[in-house]
What we know:
The chain is mainly alpha-helical. It folds into 2 domains: 3-170, Orthogonal Bundle (Helix Hairpins); 173-239, no CATH class. The protein is 76% helix and 5% strand. The chain has 5 helices and 4 strands; from the N terminus they run ααααββαββ. It has a 4-stranded mixed beta sheet. The longest helix is centred in the middle third of the chain and has 84 residues, at 87-170. The radius of gyration is 42 Å and the shape is rod-shaped.
Amino acid sequence: MNPQLKALEALQQIDAEILELNRTGEGNPKRLAELEQDLAQTKGLWEQEAAKVAENEQQRHDLDEQIQAEKETLRKWETRLTEQRTPREYSALSREIDIGRKSLETLDHQKTELREAAIPLEQAAAERQQVWRERQKTAGAEATEIRRKMAALEEKLADLSARRAKAAAICESALLGRYDTIRRKRGIALVPVIGGSCRGCHISLPPQLYNQLRSGTATIHSCPSCHRLIYVPDPPPETNGT
């Protein structure tokens, strides 16, 4: 077998391993993105509920400040009430005190409603947080395993790339160019001829070409049909044992 064809055969084996590794790992980035998106969505749902809890707490805090301010105002008015000198002034301030007390009752009622509303909000937030934490464990473990596989795959691909570079260096540049062009178009660039037929397209070769291949000439031929590089295995399978 032509030494250059032997070099191409070795190169093609490496290319086949690279292709298989890429196929094996091609789903990893997509699955990793799905896991990350799922985690982000799960966390987002928890954060939405947590934001509702925080809003409720802020509203209650604001109400507490309003209530304290209202109580302080009432204390001042009640202190001033005994200081009023005329019935009109007394009556006017009394009305203000009544309005303030009603306002205080309204604020207290609102605070109670907010406190009651906080219970289901906090429960919902706790449930969402628990779901997120569980997804962190399961999806996180799967993502870690995928990243480990991706790293191992990259290491293998780097090794194969180095081996390919060495194998390609043995091939003549023109032949290597033919090989790479055919490989991009056909997938497999170098195929054996067995029983007079190209194993790439299964078309029978012209007898004269087949005889040239069997004779081991230095010329490297292509299949007239599929244009792949062809060779007869050494020794030809059809002559084994004869």
